[in-house]
Specification:
Layout: E1 4-10, H1 16-27, E2 30-33, H2 34-44, H3 47-57, H4 64-75, H5 78-83, E3 84-88, H6 94-106, E4 113-118, H7 121-131, H8 138-161, E5 165-169, H9 174-189
Parallel strand pairs: 1-3, 1-4, 2-3, 4-5
Length: about 200
């Protein structure tokens, strides 16, 4: 099977973590989450990792240039070259997406697609309230979701404009949702077979 190169998107509470793990199991890409990447780069002591570590220690956000560099560095590793990737938490903005397109192109790779796990705001709010975490008040959840919407809408538009976006209904049984996701991924991987 050819290596897959995907981005997974979805609101908090959409089941993205569960479905990402299933995609990794089914298609064998390397699951590349921004948080893990930052920690790995810091632990490895790369130049970018040291820079990111200093920012994170100071409580600052890691800027686009730095995060783009760390992602590019991670995606250039042999395991990713061999197995492909499932990006989770990156890109977050159209600027990051454009940078990613550039460094993938330099590496002779293209993105197969971006899947957005679509679950209504009411449903993800209900799911997060049901988890019962102390910081999961309805008001706090709404604020986080509003921020996600405002940040992510331009990114979804960027992927759609580039013909890369698949919106997958994230409602229902985990297996049913995974069936929809894998159908979208399969359609992306074999456009020649689709008639």
């Amino acid at each position: 099977m050819a290596a897959v190169h995907l981005v997974i998107l979805g609101r908090q509470g959409s089941g993205k973590g569960t479905q990402a793990a299933r995609l990794v199991e089914a298609y064998s890409p390397i699951h590349v989450s921004t948080g893990d990447m930052l920690r790995t780069a810091v632990a490895a002591g790369t130049e970018l990792g040291r820079e990111a570590g200093a920012l994170m220690d100071a409580g600052d956000l890691v800027g686009d240039d730095l995060i783009n560099g760390i992602v590019a560095e991670r995606l250039a590793q042999p395991d990713v070259a061999e197995h492909g990737f499932l990006l989770d938490g990156y890109p977050r903005t159209p600027d990051q997406a454009a940078a990613m397109e550039g460094f993938l192109s330099e590496a002779g790779t293209t993105l197969d697609g971006a899947v957005n796990l679509d679950v209504s705001v009411d449903e993800v709010t209900a799911r997060m309230v049901a988890r019962g975490r102390a910081d999961d008040t309805e008001e706090a959840i709404r604020r986080r979701l509003d921020l996600y919407e405002s940040e992510t809408a331009p990114l979804l538009a960027w992927f759609a404009d580039h013909g890369l976006l698949d919106v997958v209904d994230g409602m229902g049984d985990e297996d049913v949702v995974f069936g929809r996701l894998s159908a979208a991924v399969d359609a992306r991987l074999s456009p020649l077979d689709a008639s």
